[in-house]
């Protein structure tokens, strides 16, 4: 069962019993969209402290505010996980078997 308790600056945390945790209910700091708009500097300050700040609209998650350091770390991780151009080329089939060609109609070009 959700038992909201208000923490400073309208950031809502939730005390959850075991069944609620199993249902993956939000336990992170959550702001309604209106509260986040009205108190944007507080949302940013809270995000800079290292904890993502979730924003909800009509009770559904629609966004998250992260610190710049957390965002940059995520970008580095994403870039490191992306394959290089060489890796993509090496993954191409290297046999000499024929492949199916898609029939295409030639375009009319006016000169």
Quick gist of this model?
The protein has 111 residues and is an alpha+beta fold.
Structural summary, described in words:
With 111 residues, the chain is an alpha+beta fold. The protein has a domain of 65 residues: YefM-like fold (3-Layer(aba) Sandwich), CATH 3.40.1620. The strands form 2 sheets. Strands 3-4-5 form a 3-stranded mixed beta sheet. It is built from 5 helices and 5 strands, in the order E-E-H-E-H-H-E-E-H-H. A hairpin with a 2-residue loop joins strand 4 and strand 5. The protein is elongated, with a radius of gyration of 25 Å.
Structural topology:
Blueprint: E1 2-7, E2 11-16, H1 18-22, E3 30-32, H2 33-38, H3 40-48, E4 53-57, E5 60-65, H4 68-81, H5 85-90
Parallel strand pairs: 3-4
Antiparallel strand pairs: 1-2, 4-5
Task: Provide tags for this entry.
111 residues, alpha+beta, YefM-like fold, three-stranded mixed β-sheet, two-stranded antiparallel sheet, 5 helices, 36% helix, elongated, disordered N terminus
Which parts are unreliable, with pLDDT below 50 for 5 consecutive residues or more?
1-8, 15-22
Rg, Å, rounded: 25 Å
Oligomer kind: single chain
CATH topology of the domain at 2-66: YefM-like fold
**What string, H for helix and E for strand, traces the elements in order?**
EEHEHHEEHH
Arrangement of strands in the largest sheet: 3-4-5
* Class by SSE composition: alpha+beta
Please count the beta strands (DSSP E, at least 2 residues each).
5
Alpha carbon gap, first and last residue: 73 Å
- Largest sheet properties: 3 strands, mixed
Mean pLDDT: 80
Instruction: Please count the helical segments.
Output: 5
Helix content: 25-40%
| CATH level-two architecture of the domain at 2-66 | 3-Layer(aba) Sandwich
CATH class type of the domain at 2-66: Alpha Beta
Question: What is the H level of CATH, i.e. the homologous superfamily of the domain at 2-66?
Answer: YefM-like domain
β-sheet strand percentage: 15-25%
What general form does the structure show? elongated
